[in-house]
Specification:
This protein is an alpha+beta fold and about 260 residues long. The chain has one domain: q2cbj1_9rhob like domain (Jelly Rolls, Sandwich), CATH 2.60.120.620. Helices cover about 15% and strands about 35% of the residues. It is built from five helices and 15 strands. It is globular, with a radius of gyration of 18 Å. Bound molecules: fe (ii) ion. GO terms for molecular function: dioxygenase activity. InterPro entries: 2OG-Fe_dioxygenase. This is 2OG-Fe dioxygenase family protein. Pfam families: 2OG-Fe_Oxy_2.
């Protein structure tokens, strides 16, 4: 069966529906509560962004998830991250993020999401002998003050550099904006409103928990807009789990 991800370069999912199992609500609540206490993204403290990150390997044969060890600095656990070369705001930079806590890494829903995304990815047969590297970002945008905004990085249509990326909504509360757009690759660097309509495949919003989308990065560009406060009480919040998938990179002996 040809998946939409393979066909069109992107796909939209409703995982609350398709992953449904006994206990999904409790596991979702545990993730939702964990997002309440995400630490500030040290790399963007002024942007109202909060983040944790961990990485794993998926072994193609056993389909086991193996979490990679963290680095410890001043008694805190960090996960190392190498930014894909396509993020114009952080070209080629090495970063360390606060790691996701062990009890959350064991959350059944998180594991099911990782494996459901993994099953959507596709690779050359000869690539499948090596583990697939999985980067799991918990990212929350939060705006407390009227007139302020919280911005995703980069704040334009872009490609990530990893072969596949998926986004899963955890919560959207009292937020204006946060629009998603999928475009052709050549509109990278532009704002969606600057681009001819026929160069955008789809413009949409994730509203309900576990509404999700995935991209095959080389086939499309993608965008998520900043959020501002809506008319309701309390802060504007938009929380997502972002998961990227890439091959084990083996050194080229000829270089
Ligand atoms: Fe992205």
């Amino acid at each position: 069966m040809m998946s939409q991800l393979k066909n069109k370069g992107y796909a939209i999912y409703d995982y609350m529906e398709t992953l449904k199992y006994e206990g999904i609500e409790e596991d979702y609540e545990a993730l939702l509560e964990y997002f309440e206490y995400l630490p500030v993204d040290d790399y963007a403290p002024e942007l109202n962004r909060y983040r944790r990150y961990s990485r794993a390997l998926v072994l193609p044969a056993s389909k086991n998830i193996e979490w990679l060890p963290n680095v410890v600095r001043d008694g805190r656990e960090y996960a190392a991250y190498f930014q894909g070369k396509f993020n114009p705001e952080h070209p080629g930079s090495y970063r360390e993020f606060h790691a996701i806590d062990p009890h959350i890494l064991e959350n059944t829903l998180l594991k099911k999401i990782i494996m459901a995304d993994y099953e959507e990815t596709f690779w050359g047969e000869e690539d499948m002998i090596m583990p697939i590297h999985v980067g799991v970002h918990f990212v929350k945008l939060e705006v407390d003050e009227e007139g302020e905004r919280a911005v995703s990085s980069p704040d334009c249509l872009h490609q990530d550099g990893e072969p596949f990326t998926f986004a899963h909504l955890i919560e959207r509360r009292n937020a204006e904006g946060g629009i998603n757009a999928i475009g052709i690759p050549s509109v990278s660097g532009s704002q969606p409103e600057e681009v001819d309509e026929d160069k955008l495949h789809e413009v949409f919003e994730l509203n309900r928990p576990l509404e999700s989308y995935g991209v095959e990065d080389s086939s499309v560009s993608h965008y998520v807009g900043p959020i501002t406060k809506g008319g309701g009480e309390g802060p504007a919040v938009r929380s997502v789990i972002l998961i990227d998938y890439q091959l084990t990179v083996v050194a080229d002996m000829d270089e």
